[in-house]
Amino acid sequence: MDKSCTLLVHYDKGTPAVAKEIKEALEGNDVEAKVDAMKKAVMLLLNGETIPQLFITIIRYVLPSEDHTIQKLLLLYLELIEKTDSRGKVLPEMILICQNLRNNLQHPNEYIRGVTLRFLCRLKETEIVEPLTPSVLQNLEHRHPFVRRNAILAVMSIYKLPNGDQLFVDAPEMIEKALSTEQDPSAKRNAFLMLFTCAEERAVNYLLSNVDKVSDWNESLQMVVLELIRSVCKTKPAEKGKYIKIIISLLSATSSAVIYECAGTLVSLSSAPTAIRAAANTYCQLLLSQSDNNVKLILLDRLSELKSLHRDIMVELIIDVLRALSSPNLDIRKKTLDIALDLITHHNINEVVQMLKKEVVKTQSGELEKNGEYRQMLIQAIHACAVKFPEVASTVVHLLMDFLGDSNVASALDVVAFVREIIETNPKLRVSIITRLLDTFYQIRAGKVCPCALWIIGEYCLSLSEVESGVATIKQCLGELPFYSVSEESEPTETSNKIQPTSSAMVSSRKPVILADGTYATQSAASETTFSTPTVVQGSVTSGNLRTLLLTGDFFLGAVVACTLTKLVLRLEEVQPSKTEVNKTVTQALLIMVSMLQLGQSPASPHPIDNDSYERIVLCIKLLCHRNAEMKKIWLESCRQSFVKMISEKQLTEMAELKAKTQTTNAQPDDLIDFFHLKSRKGMSQLELEDQVQDDLKRATGEFTKDENDGNKLNRILQLTGFSDPVYAEAYVTVHHYDIALEVTVINRTKETLQNMCLELATMGDLKLVERPQNYSLAPETSMQIKANIKVSSTETGVIFGNIVYETSNVMERNVVVLNDIHIDIMDYISPAVCSEAAFRTMWAEFEWENKVAVNTTIQNEREFLDHIIKSTNMKCLTAPSAIEGECGFLAANLYAKSVFGEDALVNVSIEKQTDGALSGYIRIRSKTQGIALSLGDKITLKQKGSS
Amino acid sequence: MVVLAASIVGKSGKVLVSRQYVDMSRIRIEGLLAAFPKLVGMGKQHTYIETENVRYVYQPIEVLFLLLVTTKQSNILEDLDTLRMLSKLVPEYSMSLDEEGINRAAFELIFAFDEVISLGHKESVTVAQVKQYCEMESHEEKLHKLVMQSKINDTKDVMKRKANEIDKSKIEKTRGDKGGLSSMSSLSSGFNDMSISHGRGSSFGSGSMLGMMSDVEPISTKAKDRSRSSVTAPPKSSGMKLGKSGKNQLMESLKAEGEHIIEDVKPTSQTRAAVAPPTDPFTLTVEEKLNVALRRDGGISSFDMQGTLSLQILNQDDGFVQVQIETGGNPEILFKTHPNINRELFNSESILGLKRPDQPFPTGQGGDGVGLLRWRMQRADESMVPLTINCWPSVSGNETYVSIEYEASSMFDLTNVIISVPLPALRDAPMVKQCDGDWRYDSRSSVLEWSILLIDNSNRSGSMEFVVPPVDSSVFFPISVQFAATSTYSGLKVTGMIPLRGGGGATPRFVQRTQLIAQDYQVV
């Protein structure tokens, strides 16, 4: 592993500190100047400028200083300085430091002693530590707890060094003794920690002999106790019984941190229902008692882990989990609902729905911001419940229908979609829903909710009375006909002239948008369907809601009204025996349709009716005038059937997803089965039993290296120089998350020794070299490995170039071999990801950088081209496969990926098949930063030609 | 439960300060910190981020982020505590909460962070403690320096005296006496020692300072000649070999030369101050004397506290007064007034006045003044005793280990505590293994004196351990104890003087002394 780094300090390169100045200041008597100079020396050291002559100056002039700050800075300096030579031997100068450290360990100032002991914790060189051990031991009995605390830690770190146990043969014994008399909580904790890491049995003994007192111990000590228990039980599961009692007693500790830890320990130790229940209960209690959002979220994470492992137990606690909904934070509420939804069973569904209903009602009363979003979440949750357990639908649907008129469009949309699904799946509820819907229809204000509600009315009004009241409701909502009067018409000529240009300007200035089906459009067919964030709808209640919407120019709605009326009339024909009544209704419907057309063509509307709506309304008029059986069938039955098909398809995909989910968790037929008991007895491999915590730490510090395929490794070798060059070099590039490791093999092909050979690298793009290059000498015809680390800070194509410089003995000039460039591929940094369509579209609207690449390819098939792009850019296609099925000569799809730095990359592909068979169109890339858009564009340009 | 690093980064991702608590490579930590600003979402109501491998817990401070990098298993509650603590510290050390301010205070911040997190574990400290730790003001170091200074002065004195001797011996030499040789040799050795003491100055242990302190006791008046027979305590920490021997050598050789070493800093005796002639018109003295015998195995054998209130009036003219007092209301204490005092007045209003108001209180400088009130308390349980001593001799092999501990009640702050333990007649001083406070051995009376200057809340209990040759454990009793305190059992206070004549209403000035003295305090 690389050298560890203990501190980072920002260093401004703008003010270069000259070694000479530092030296002078260090030699002087001015304490302030000395402190400054020491700080500079440390910063230089951090930046890789080891000024070796400074060391002696520091030894001579800084070491004897009495000033405390200087002494502390000196310790930092010593911490950073290279203490060994290239072969790992301790430098002889270091013995000078030893003397100083020893004096510090016996300093009358307890704090000097303390910080010196702390410094010893970070020392790795046994040779330096060795002469200091007696002084360290003395400090174990120092009067001041500050010194004892650090002395114990120092003993622990030294003991852990290689051969450290020989330096302190009886360290555990001594610490155990100290532990028994120690009063200071912190020192006591450290002592116990030392025993825990160095002599586990002693720690266990101490713990077991003090079982009764554990609950009175200090919080920090209790934490270590829990850690100990976890680790002991991992290695000796048989002794678990002894500790469970301790954990249970600690569950009632005063510190919430301890309680949290207890619950975690309990889960890791036992899968007995009681233990899990206790842990889950604890988490739930903490969830209620802790006010910090971070804590709540992490607790919810823990609960959802528990849920996936022990669902049956968590089911009992669902109501407790749901109490977390009282937090105003949306993230917390969302997580809570997610957990709860997975825990619903036949037994608790009623309770849960009760609770959710209560929450919904609450959102109505309080005027908190984000109430709307929360309500939307709740409605979705209730929807999900009702889908799973249709019997509850009846209890909630009426409550939810109150929200059809919600000012939050999104939640109203959810409600209406819910109602639509329920009315189909629960035929029993149909009558009551329709009645209710007709009653509340006038409250619906949103232009996007109305069409759906109208569709329901059109489809499910079956009986005579329903149909009649349906027509009446629509009529009522449209208000008095015609939509505008002549008196209104006389003046608008001017106003409309004013309005016209502004609205057209608005349309033309609108940014290109991505439609729901993935097509890329500069102007949408119905301007109301622009996908904006939920808007609040305003409108007076006095005039009918449909009328208001129509007058603002929503002609799509007009078309829907027309269709609904047509359907109602056709149905009326079936149920109404009296012919005159039917004809009466037909004429009314025709009047409405004609009025709408009139409005659409009059200057009173903000913009003229679009062709699509116009055609539709005209179609309805034609149909009403010439009614025939075939048409009737299509209108009254086929529509319904396609909806039924859609719902069943949706259920099918859900089922498939569920299946896929359950399948992944199952073991493969030929997987190895681990018998835990056999394993531990055999003592097969300690590695496999190794502590989860340790793994966690290793992963965090980057020590975890995955074994990679050797074949894979060979694929990525780059030749850097030619075979006939005096120096042959090739590099193996490993791309980690945030860094690139270059492993360069250098071979001396000459018969001479290469001296001062140096691999000089430079970078372009967002790359940074971490270390300065070092000089080597290379014997004739030998090879060596040089490692270089390069830091990457954003997703961008980067180039590393450089050369190898060396000297030979007979020619006293430097030779240079230029290396091939190494291109760092952006594809290493992005990975396919998924986001919702809405999120995609908002990001598309927000992001500033767009790169437009014209399609130029030899591929003839649209699908094939899309697959090729997906493969070569390593992205995920968001557009559903069903949407791009079939041969129509057009294709539009959205691709999405995320970089390791969390940046989003959006791609839209829109292609069209020309008459000559070639594909044309554009690929647009959008991202927040320029780097991604550019490099992804380059990549696509390069690759789009096709496999050829 | 492991904090990997505590860092401060700018909004743009510039790493200003970072302190790592576990081993990790530079590229790793830089990578983690560089990734952080990109992960921070806007408008989130929580301040932690989990990635595949680590968790960031952060807190925005104006234009900066203070963040902890922890493992994913880490205890969030504790980490938040730590973060809160650090966020309190940052403004303490950084003048301005921007990049420049942090840069300037980078090292101070690192030092402060080190106090809060040790090896990745949280320390339970407060802001005040961290500040104290970082300031590194050590009382012991100051004392050490003082002692060093006085040592140097002493040695200079010795040098002067030596110089005089040389002069004298020169004169003698001129008289043709041969005896000068020996004095020359002793002289040279004296100089050697001195030079050692200068050269190894820094190696005097703190124990030597304690040794000095023991001479500051108020009883030094009675023992002018004792210093020769008594052995000062050797340094408690055994220090570096050279330093220790150097110091002993110095002391030893100085003693061998027959020098009387006065290491005393001027003793400021309290008793003398009390005796000093009063200058105020009225002096009221509340004094309680304790006669207590404690049993060695716990419990009280006898307890007797006697208190007096006496009044001393300087001028004859001022004699017409009454004294308003206030008692602590301890029901165990019975007050008795002087026969001449008006008892009813005292019982009803707690005013001490003469039965015949036309007579003045006797006046005069001598003595302790006139006793007005006496009280005593004879019943007390163990919790009422100001100081309990627990002495455990135990014989093992051919040694007797004696460990003594004291425990002081929180009612009193005791000063000048001396615990005298009788020992069997020994030639050498006993081997003291451990001692809170300091000790001296008086070989003439075979008494080990353990003295503690002040017992207050910081050291309500303490212990000493020493080893002597095997003896019967009864030898170590009775242990007698001396101490003084400024608060009393009765809590009696003089709240005012009421002049009876020439009243302008102005309350006359008066001085009040209160003390509790252990007269005969023994463990039998």
Overview of this protein structure:
The complex is a heterodimer of chains A (948) and B (524). Chain A is of the alpha+beta class. Among the domains of chain A are: 461-483 and 544-636, no CATH class; 716-824, Coatomer, gamma subunit, appendage domain (Immunoglobulin-like, Sandwich), CATH 2.60.40; 828-944, 2-Layer Sandwich (TATA-Binding Protein), CATH 3.30.310.10. In chain A, strands 14, 15, 16, 17, 18 and 19 form a 6-stranded antiparallel sheet that branches. In chain A, strands 4-5-6-10-8 form a 5-stranded antiparallel sheet. In chain A, α12 crosses α13 and α17 (273-289) packs antiparallel against α18 (293-309). In chain A, 38% of the residues are buried. Mean pLDDT of chain A is 78; it is low at 487-511, 522-541, 679-691 and 704-709. By secondary structure, chain B is of the alpha+beta class. Chain B has helices at 26-39, 76-93, 99-104, 106-116, 127-135, 139-174, 180-199, 206-213, 241-256, 270-275, 343-349; strands at 3-10, 15-20, 48-50, 54-61, 64-71, 117-118, 121-122, 230-232, 282-294, 300-313, 321-326, 334-337, 351-352, 370-377, 387-396, 399-408, 414-422, 431-435, 438-442, 447-455, 461-468, 479-485, 493-499, 510-523. Chain B has a 10-stranded mixed sheet, with helices on one face. A 5-stranded antiparallel sheet of chain B has the order 2-1-5-4-3, with helices on both faces. In chain B, α2 packs antiparallel against α4, α4 (106-116) crosses α5 (127-135) and α7 (180-199) packs antiparallel against α9. At the A-B interface, β1, α4, α6, α9 and α12 of A face β2, α1, β5, α2 and α3 of B. Chain A: Pfam families: Adaptin_N, Coatamer_beta_C, Coatomer_b_Cpla. Chain A: Oligomeric complex that consists of at least the alpha, beta, beta', gamma, delta, epsilon and zeta subunits.
